Automatic annotation (TrEMBL):
Its EC number is 2.1.1.-. NCBIfam families: PRK04266.1-2 (NF003276), PRK04266.1-3 (NF003277). The keyword rRNA processing applies. PROSITE patterns: FIBRILLARIN. This is Fibrillarin-like rRNA/tRNA 2'-O-methyltransferase. InterPro entries: Fibrillarin, Fibrillarin_CS, SAM-dependent_MTases_sf.
Length: 224
């Protein structure tokens, strides 16, 4: 059984596993990180593991609006080896673009290898703290998705939103509490990071704590 829950995102029933998140594979026959591939209703789906993707975890925990959709442009900060990037690539389809910024050269090499067949992914080796450094590669975007292990995560988010986000665009910030302050109560960290976003004009519309999929993590959804 297949059920669409967002544009490009599905729940598929697997024997012995129950309902699993999945995205329609943009490149049929190709895996990105060893994920399971299944076929349903005449097309191919890639199973999306919430223990390996904070965005998938947020969907499982009750995200009720996903601004990442077909033909949208997404600036993805902290792309790593491309696990979540690949599913975002599936969702925006060939008409969309994912600008995948990663600071680690090693991780970027893995990203390039894993997404080499995905023409809508543009890997960029850069430091997200300096958004002007990649302006030659990035157009105005509909969504800024941030997953960076930095103490100034909210500031990085705001700086990039100011630089690239369209009016009425969306921000998704995956806060890693221990990266901000290893000793602080995660709830206080979330409140602190939220306050920074709001002070700079972002309207927070949803906060989702990601346990048990990710410990001491929260996803904030905000509008610019």
């Amino acid at each position: 059984m297949l059920k669409q829950i967002f544009e490009g995102v599905y729940l598929v029933e697997l024997e012995g596993m129950g309902e699993q998140l999945a995205t329609k594979n943009l490149v049929p026959g190709h895996r990105v990180y060893g994920e399971r591939i299944v076929k349903a209703d005449g097309f191919e789906l890639r199973i999306w593991d919430p223990y390996r993707s904070k965005l998938a975890a947020a969907i499982k925990k009750g995200l009720d609006e996903l601004p990442i959709k077909r033909a949208k442009k997404v600036l993805y900060l902290g792309a790593a080896a491309g696990t979540t990037v690949s599913h975002v690539s599936d969702i925006v389809e060939k008409e969309g673009v994912v600008y995948a910024v990663e600071f680690s050269a090693r991780a970027l090499r893995e990203l390039i290898a894993s997404c080499e067949n995905r023409s809508n992914v543009i890997p960029i080796l850069a430091d997200a703290r300096f958004p002007s450094s990649y302006r030659r590669y990035v157009d105005a975007v509909d969504v800024v998705y941030v997953d960076v292990a930095q103490p100034d995560q909210a500031k990085i988010t705001v700086d990039n939103a100011r630089f690239y986000l369209k009016k009425d665009g969306w921000v998704l910030l995956a806060i890693k509490a221990r990266s901000v302050d290893v000793a602080a109560d995660p709830q206080k960290v979330y409140a602190q990071q939220r306050a920074i976003l709001e002070k700079e004009g972002l309207k927070v519309v949803k906060e989702i704590e990601l346990s048990p999929f990710e410990k001491d993590h929260e996803l904030i959804v905000a509008k610019y």
